[in-house]
Amino acid sequence: MGKGGEDVGVGVAKGTGDLAKGTGGAVGNLAHGDVGGAGASLGKGAGGLGKNVAVGTGKGVGKVGKGVFREFKKRGGRSKRQDGKN
Fold it and tell me: Would you give per-residue pLDDT tens digits along the chain (86 residues)?
């Protein structure tokens, strides 16, 4: 389950890096008067952010779910305490 949280964090970090690169490129393009290139750079950075966050979150949630299922299986499929109390 811990690896799932790590994957979510890695996806967010990579996505933030992509957004920063795209923003930096857009600023550079605007400084040189290339409005079309600025829009493309910003769009590319935002797309990278969305992709990496989605992939990282998907992997992380999958691993957390797998870990929860494993723990449930170890308990013999029972979610209640053995003495019958909740």
Answer: 566 777 777 888 888 888 788 787 877 777 777 777 777 887 777 777 778 778 888 788 888 877 777 777 777 766 555 555 55
Spacing of C-alpha 53 from chain mean position = 3
pTM, 2 dp: 0.53
Whose tokens are 């990282």? That residue is 56
Residues 6+ apart with CB under 8 A from 82: none
The Cα-based distances of 78 to 21, 81, 82 in angstroms read 49, 8, 8
CB of 22 closer than 8 Å to CB of 48: yes
